[in-house]
From TrEMBL:
It holds the Pfam family AAA_31. SUPFAM superfamilies: P-loop containing nucleoside triphosphate hydrolases. This is AAA domain-containing protein. Residues 2-38 form the AAA domain. Transmembrane segments: none annotated.
């Protein structure tokens, strides 16, 4: 199970999740950015 999949399952279970992407390729960041764009209005930025 990948970090993104685990984060998704925990979020669906009602938990708040912080994913820290320290990979130089930034794969988790790319995936989460794509998901955030699909969920417009549910993701807030500071």
């Amino acid at each position: 199970m990948t970090t993104v999949n685990l984060a998704h399952r925990l979020t669906v279970a009602g938990l708040r999740v912080l994913v820290v992407d320290s990979d130089p390729q930034a794969n988790a960041t790319s995936i989460l950015d794509a998901v955030a764009r699909e969920l417009v209005g549910t993701v807030t930025a500071p």
